[in-house]
Amino acid sequence: MNNNGRLAGKTVFITGAASGIGRAAVVKCLEAGANVFATDVSDAIDQLADTLESVDTNVLASRRLDVRDAAACEEAMTDAIRQFGEVDVAVLAAGIGYSRPFEAMDAESWHELYAVNVDGVFHCCQAAIAIMKSGATERTWDSAASIIIISSIAGQVAEPAASAYASTKGAVRSLSKSLAKYCAGHDYKIRVNSVHPGVIDTPLLWADLEATGAAQEAYESVCAAQPTGRIGRPEDVANGIVYLASDEAAFVNGAELVIDGGSTA
Ligand SMILES: NC(=O)c1ccc[n+]([C@@H]2O[C@H](COP(=O)([O-])OP(=O)(O)OC[C@H]3O[C@@H](n4cnc5c(N)ncnc54)[C@H](O)[C@@H]3O)[C@@H](O)[C@H]2O)c1
Questions:
Q1: Residue 34 belongs to what domain range?
Q2: 20 C-alpha vs ligand 1 centroid, how far in Å?
Q3: I need a labelling partner for 227 at 20 to 30 A (CA). Which of 24, 72, 125, 128 fits?
Q4: Is residue 131 part of a domain?
Q5: Keywords, A to Z (predicted)?
Q6: 204 CA distance to ligand 1 centroid (A)?
């Protein structure tokens, strides 16, 4: 899919940008003409530009960011402003998985999941709103800023094999809707939406497949269980992110964009 020009003039701030869905969002947003400020807790973020094909370094900046750290989220957002003058879109993709049985889960793992998947979204939403609302007078609702929270279908339907993870994704799904109305109520001209990927081929998925002890077999059985016979690609989700980031989605607010090949239909 060619996204050329759809995000021209916009600056997109992305968390979890070194891998999987976040990394695909970097590529698609650059292709769509955006400036991209890419962040991740992993050292791999330092090599991001080198791993992308012929990227113009005037439009891509990257730095490390641990979303568990509220002050660091604010600093990173300020850094993006320093670099590009504005943040129009925030894509919150940083996340970790956990798919051991609920009864085997210890409190430390529970809190760590919440620290990244929920607190991280909270910190970035606060930092993004603080910056985006200051541009409210120059924007109309047809060119509003956009916060895109990467939840999961596990935040919408039962996921007995990953209950705790699913609960984090339900929390940010709910937060997204409330923030959409909160920002509209204050006329901040910020849209807030959640994206709900199904099974997507990323390192996060492969960590779960490896944990079964028979990753390839598990992969094939997951594919066979999908309505279209395949799991999703990170680019499938990134195309939805570009749509929500663009002004084409001007009347899309507080929505849940499901990208799962029909698995929850
Ligand atoms: N892969 C799937 O099947 C799937 C399905 C539904 C939802 N999701 C969600 O999509 C998002 C992206 O996942 P992915 O599949 O691309 O995984 P991934 O592991 O490929 O990428 C996640 C990225 O988040 C980063 N990250 C982890 N902890 C962080 C922290 N504390 N601060 C900043 N960055 C941190 C990692 O370093 C990594 O680069 C996650 O929120 C995940 O829950 C994934």
A1: 11-202+233-259
A2: 7
A3: 24
A4: yes
A5: Oxidoreductase
A6: 6
